[in-house]
Design goal:
The two termini are 23 Å apart. α3 runs antiparallel to α4 (90-109), α4 (90-109) packs parallel to α9 and α9 packs antiparallel against α10 (260-270). This protein has a domain at 45-119 and 134-139 and 161-271: Up-down Bundle (Methane Monooxygenase Hydroxylase, Chain G, domain 1). The radius of gyration is 21 Å and the shape is globular. The chain has helices at residues 24-27, 30-35, 44-78, 90-109, 135-144, 163-182, 188-198, 204-211, 215-248, 260-270, 278-281. Helix content is 58%, strand content 0%. The longest helix has 35 residues, at 44-78. It has eleven helices and no strands. By secondary structure, the protein is mainly α.
Length: 282
């Protein structure tokens, strides 16, 4: 982390709060947190199903907070006039590496659902809910620089969208459009391309090799590569999990009506890798 950064105690958001009464259970809202799990059946595996997704959503929320700081500090480093390629990336990597750790948490947590034996107990009772509808994951993907690959992901054989996607578009469509505009020239892949354009070389491969000789550029490329691998791992794991669980219940579509094989495989086919060329040198 940058040595120039100094920390100062911050005032309470609520000045009337008595911090002497701020105990662990109420500071972290443990009872409220647990009560957020509201299974619709008596299945204990449904309780697990909810818990795993909520843990991932909490991780996504923090990843979004840190990704804002990654993008901000990355933009600042690229504007550093003291270096023709990129300035000090210590702050960028500080937040980026925490995102990587959080993504590891997600990639470790989600596969727990593969141990779930009783999906059939509650699958037909939970309606159109689907991981497809995770607006936080969409937010994170847009910040990463993906295109709208999920659009139409729930179409059936007749080309009609499932209610899961229809409702998602109605609730978050405008927000998603705003995110795409906000991060249009402020996302990971955009800044990756700037780095390549600044490097010497007659090809992308040569540019990447030369960037490796720049300490600050090399550090951020390492983070890009690790993030790309974790992103692809998540998608592949999600696909494998869907196949495993739906095979158990003898179904061929996801909980939200998705043609899961086509939709979940679409990322690998159309978006991956996020940072072309890195897989060849790192």
């Amino acid at each position: 982390m940058s040595e120039s950064y100094t920390f100062q105690p911050l005032p309470l958001i609520n000045p009337s709060l008595d911090i002497n009464e701020n105990h662990y259970w109420n500071y972290h809202n443990i009872e409220e947190l647990i009560s957020c799990k509201k299974p619709l059946t008596a299945s204990l595996d449904e309780d697990l199903f909810i818990a795993v997704h909520q843990m991932c959503e909490l991780a996504f929320h923090q990843m979004i907070i840190d990704m804002e700081r990654v993008l901000k500090t990355l933009a600042q480093a690229l504007q550093d006039a003291t270096d023709p390629i990129i300035g000090n990336t210590a702050e960028v990597c500080y937040f980026f590496r925490r995102i990587l750790r959080l993504y590891e948490v997600v990639n470790t947590t989600m596969p727990i659902l593969a141990t779930m034996r009783a999906f059939a107990e509650f699958r037909t009772s939970i309606g159109p809910t689907s991981g497809f509808q995770s607006f936080q994951f969409r937010h994170l993907e847009i910040m990463s620089g993906v295109c709208k690959y999920w659009d139409g992901g729930t179409k059936n054989a007749e080309g009609k969208l499932h209610i899961a996607e229809i409702e998602f578009n109605q609730r978050y469509g405008e927000q998603v459009a705003q995110w795409f505009e906000l991060y249009r020239q402020h996302n990971l892949t955009y800044y990756y391309q700037i780095l390549i354009n600044r490097a010497a070389g007659n090809s992308q491969a040569e540019c990447l090799v030369n960037l490796q000789t720049n300490t600050n550029a090399s550090a951020i490329l390492q983070c890009f590569s690790a993030y790309d691998n974790l992103q692809r791992r998540f998608h592949k794991s999600h696909l494998g999990l869907a196949i495993t669980q739906l095979k158990i219940v003898g179904a061929d579509v996801g909980t939200g009506g998705t043609s899961f094989r086509d939709y979940l495989a679409k990322y690998e086919r159309e978006e991956a890798p996020l940072f072309p060329g890195l897989e060849d040198i790192l």
